[in-house]
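User: Here's a protein and a ligand (nicotinamide-adenine-dinucleotide). What would the complex look like?
Assistant: Let me lay out the input and then the predicted complex.
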Amino acid sequence: MPQTGNIIDGKGMAAQIRSELKATVQTLSHQGTMPGLAVVLVGEDPASQLYVRGKIRACEEVGIYSEQIYLTSDVLEEEVLAVIDRLNDDQKIHGILVQLPLPVQIDPDRIIERIDPAKDVDGFHPQNMGRLVIGQHGFLPCTPHGIMEMLKRSDISITGKHVVVVGRSNIVGKPISFLLQREHATVTMCHSRTRELAHYTKQADILIAAAGKAHLLGRDHISPNTVVIDVGMNRLQGRKVVGDVDFEAVRELASHITPVPGGVGPMTIAMLLYNTVEAAKQRCKE
Ligand code: NAD
């Protein structure tokens, strides 16, 4: 359980998961299957390039085969769909990830829906999302999955707890709310139109901040002994990345808190690797 004081060490926890996965990948390789991930990056967004590099590096560390497909920002939607079709048919590839956001001429829903759900290691395909909502087995989206894993590995019980989620996006807020309900939490959803945000956040046993607003939540929003999970990654003008929570202001109040960087981010990548290995295992069973 990597933890320093009340700080949940996502970086250390993710390293532990990668080393567990490395052993699984070795076993699979001996059995003749090397898990493979394809990452499609459209355009030259520096943040997306950074995320993709991090994912590829993590694959290398664990022994997962990876392919990067770079497309220029003026690429047509049909061309991206053709790449997805090719990857869907490629036996070396078990997982396909299309880095978001995409340029305006491309409809992300059309692209995601084209990915074979059995290779949808981001867990964004409507089939996998639907399975998550009704409690069936499927690929879980990496960030919410990473948060659940963090809570489990920190021995934080969820049953009966009041969890307040700030943010209702399809990739974080909504899916984490369903995963938490699966584990018997009582969940309150807050969003940009919520009035008196602090009224809700102060009632949280566990607070999950996923709004994408630097330091949205400070001392006035948090009651003593709250577990604070900060998903936010907000780049300030000086290039520093900060969370949605004012870490220094609330760290003494919180029973546990995740730092930014080094909290949820590395766990997200670890769960992407986990899903890729799962996809390879599933194929072995077919
Ligand atoms: P999004 O923009 O799609 O959604 C933001 C949500 O926050 C919306 O539902 C909106 O209603 C809510 N919101 C916005 N302002 C608010 C306010 N003032 N009060 C209450 N709610 C408010 O964002 P997203 O894709 O869910 O990402 C959220 C943040 O998490 C971003 O900073 C993003 O970079 C980060 N993120 C981090 C990881 C990771 O691996 N660490 C992964 C995904 C997203």
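Summary: The chain has two domains: 32-116, 142-265.
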